[in-house]
Design a protein that fits this description.
By secondary structure, the chain is an alpha/beta fold. It has two domains: 3-9 and 255-372, Aspartate Aminotransferase, domain 1 (Alpha-Beta Complex); 15-248, Aspartate Aminotransferase, domain 2 (3-Layer(aba) Sandwich), CATH 3.40.640.10. 41% of the residues lie in helices and 14% in strands. It has a seven-stranded mixed β-sheet with strand order 2-8-7-6-5-3-4, with helices on both faces. Strands 9-10-12 form a three-stranded antiparallel β-sheet. Helix 2 (37-57) packs parallel to helix 7. The longest helix has 39 residues, at 236-274. The protein is globular.
């Protein structure tokens, strides 16, 4: 049986989500904007889902809208934040290790005549708050900083940067896809995006949060749905399932997070002891509890993934969004670490120590075989 170690891409559907989804498919199919009985029941399900997610995230229900994905939420947050503050200026600040959805929105803004400043990171993948402060200008309309990196797990100094942005009167957008439900999100941000399938909810449900008092204007044609923020018919069953999963998952992670973190510590310690010419990347302490990334010289990442899949382990390699291209990970490049032979291990809820021990046992031989097949001999 394959051990699934790719939770950073998507967490397996939580049983609570499955139960809520099936129930909502039966009872929450009507148009929540109508007034008849079935529609009022659907509206109640949607409102309950919104309140549950808002409660976990620590925001007001009327600040939260459901989207079709975390990517759509990020795009709406960034483009809408920029659109609302055009009179201030057209300058956008992002970190060098943001998710591709954020960087693609920044690229679109730049092609449309806007200006973008990219804040570098250190070798652990973390931004320096002082460098972020130096990037802000009088014409800065919006700043973006992820809560934690999706490839190496490094947690960013969101609270410190948020305070700097507040003093400069610049709203801060936070991509919280990797932390929502898994750990507390640092305070002070103005806009936030998250994705339900990262916490065991169904795919196709994202979350957009716009705090009260933050200027935001939809970059899309107006629609009556979701507080005029997100166009299209609401996916009520998906929202109900996402909310049920988030409540259950957050409770589980409060107890299971330290156990997963200990398993990751075991991987971080043993991989460099048993494999030569390997680099474990990401911050060793200020990191997500479930994720570890390492790079092996003289091994193609895709070849190592294929070999590990054959041995019964599902892991990912390189950029989570560009693994099907030949371009190296922009995150690893920005960090200045090895981009070759990269493996990301991200443990799902309930991951067991037996599978981790088995992974650590087969990994050195797998790397050795691939190096030998490439004509490389290492001690």
């Amino acid at each position: 049986m394959t051990a699934y170690f790719d939770a950073a891409s998507t967490e397996p559907l939580h049983p609570a989500a499955r139960s809520a989804l099936l129930s909502a498919l039966e009872h929450g199919w009507a148009d929540p904007a109508r007034l008849y009985g079935a529609a009022r029941g659907t509206r109640m399900l949607l409102d309950q889902a919104r309140a549950k997610v808002a409660g976990v995230l620590g925001v007001r229900p009327d600040e939260l809208s459901f989207t079709s994905s975390g990517t759509q939420a990020a795009h709406l947050a960034i483009l809408g934040g920029l659109h609302a503050r055009r009179r201030v200026g057209r300058h956008l600040v992002v970190s060098a290790v943001e998710h591709s959805s954020v960087l693609h929105a920044a690229g679109m803004h730049e092609r449309d005549g806007g200006k973008v400043t990219t804040v570098p990171v250190d070798r652990s993948g973390q931004v320096d708050a002082a460098a972020f402060a130096a990037a802000l200008r009088p014409d800065t309309a919006l700043a973006c900083l992820q809560s934690a990196n999706h490839e190496v797990g490094t947690v960013q100094p969101v609270a410190e940067v948020a305070e700097i942005c507040r003093a400069a009167r610049v709203p801060l957008f936070v991509d919280a896809a990797q932390t929502a439900g898994r750990m507390d999100i640092q305070p002070g941000w103005s806009l936030l995006a998250a994705s339900a399938h990262k916490w065991g909810g169904p795919a196709g449900v994202g979350v957009l949060v716009i705090r009260k008092g933050v200027r935001w204007r939809s970059p899309l044609p107006e629609d009556e749905r979701e507080g005029r923020r997100v166009p299209g018919f609401e996916n009520v069953p998906g929202a109900a399932a996402a909310a049920a999963a988030l409540e259950a998952y957050r409770g589980e992670m409060a107890a299971d997070g330290p156990r997963l973190s200990a398993l990751v510590d075991r991987i971080r310690a043993q991989v460099p002891r048993t494999i030569t010419d390997v680099e474990v990347v990401g911050h060793p302490v200020q990191r997500l509890p479930h994720l570890v990334t390492f790079s092996c010289l003289y091994v193609e990442g895709e070849a190592l993934l294929t070999e590990l899949d054959r041995l019964g382990f599902a892991v990912s390699s390189g950029s989570s969004c560009t693994a099907d291209t030949l371009r190296p990970s922009h995150v690893l490049e920005a960090m200045g670490v090895i981009t070759h032979g990269n493996v990301r291990v991200s443990l799902p809820r309930g991951a067991n120590s037996t599978d981790v021990d088995r992974f650590l046992a087969v990994l050195p031989d797998a790397v050795t075989r691939l190096r030998r097949s490439a004509g490389v001999t290492t001690p």
